[in-house]
Amino acid sequence: MSVNPDEIIGGCIEILERILGDDSVPRNIRRVVENIKIILLKKDETASVRGAMAISKLDGISNDPNMPLHIRTMVWNLAGQLERIPVD
After folding, report:
1. Which domains does the chain have, with CATH numbers?
2. So what's the pLDDT on residue 1?
3. By C-alpha distance, which of 41, 42, 80, 43 is closest to 58?
4. Residue 87: what pLDDT?
């Protein structure tokens, strides 16, 4: 079974939208999530490069003490999904 990077990224964008729509998310985390969304939507990089850049940013915010627990779980899930993108 082949993994379609565009489908994975599309699913990740949906999760990012849910995080952005949650009022309990602090502004600094929201800013990083918006930045991750922009990175994933850029088409001038390969899917694996975009995924790696997004994972790096997610790792940076995953330990933020102000992040609500349900959002932290979503961030970890998001990182796991992005790790499924095959390296070119």
Report:
1. 5-82 (1.20.1440.50)
2. 56
3. 80
4. 86
